[in-house]
Amino acid sequence: MTKLLILYKTEKQKNNEFGKIYELTTIYANKFNNIDSYFIVSDNTIEENYKINNKIIYIKTINNNWESILIKVIVSFQLFINSNYTHILVSNLSTFINIPLIYTKLNNSDCLSHKGNYNFNNITYCFPSGAGYIFSINLVKTICKFFTNNSFINNNILSNNFINNYPTTDDIFFGYYFYLHKIIITELPRYDIINSTIKYNISNTLNYCYYRIKTLNNKNIDNDNDNDYDYKIQLDLYKKIYK
């Protein structure tokens, strides 16, 4: 039986809250059989290396939107490698996921994602977009073994050996790892709503697996600030896809 785990990368906002998009995501992300969702957060104030509370995984790291993302993804992977999930999807709150459609796309591919390109060590390669990538559980186990066998993460800190030899954020690293190990990325259809100068209209494009939403330059559209506008787009997609 296919069973999917979704890990949403996110961070606290003001007053230890996660915001309206988090609240909306929790509603639709927990509606399905054989699909579980957790949120992963950097929190350097906890005493343990990690703790889980109310579907939130707190990882003891300082958030810097670079290596902290890779650390909390790998640590979260390690928590579930002996579970009965067949796939793990890593995304973020600024991505809206069409979960019923994406579930139908799960297959024997080791990685499904929208692709980007990057250059590291004078090598240009494809990487799975951090907005949403799906790994088979076998690939997750292989990646975790790679980190464990080489002691690349100690006390939730990347080793110098890792930093000197690999990219240090999640999607960029995974792409390099895939290049070195000849792992193919299967393309998933994604709709981008990023820094657009025109008003969002999704009415005829509901057949995408996920929607990357980051309208930082849209502060003047409808006189909304960017966070409220992103939330309105997510709410509209929620009503169209889930209701």
Question: How would you describe this protein?
Answer:
The strands form 3 sheets. The protein has an 8-stranded mixed β-sheet. A hairpin with a 2-residue loop joins strand 3 (50-53) and strand 4. It is built from 7 helices and 13 strands. The radius of gyration is 18 Å and the shape is globular. Helix 1 packs parallel to helix 7 (226-242). The protein is α/β, with parallel strands linked by helices. The longest helix is centred in the C-terminal third of the chain and has 17 residues, at 226-242. It has one domain (4-242): Alpha-Beta Complex (Spore Coat Polysaccharide Biosynthesis Protein SpsA, Chain A), CATH 3.90.550.
Number of strands: 13
For the sheet with most strands, the description reads: 8 strands, mixed
What CATH architecture do you see? Alpha-Beta Complex
- Strand fraction: 25-35%
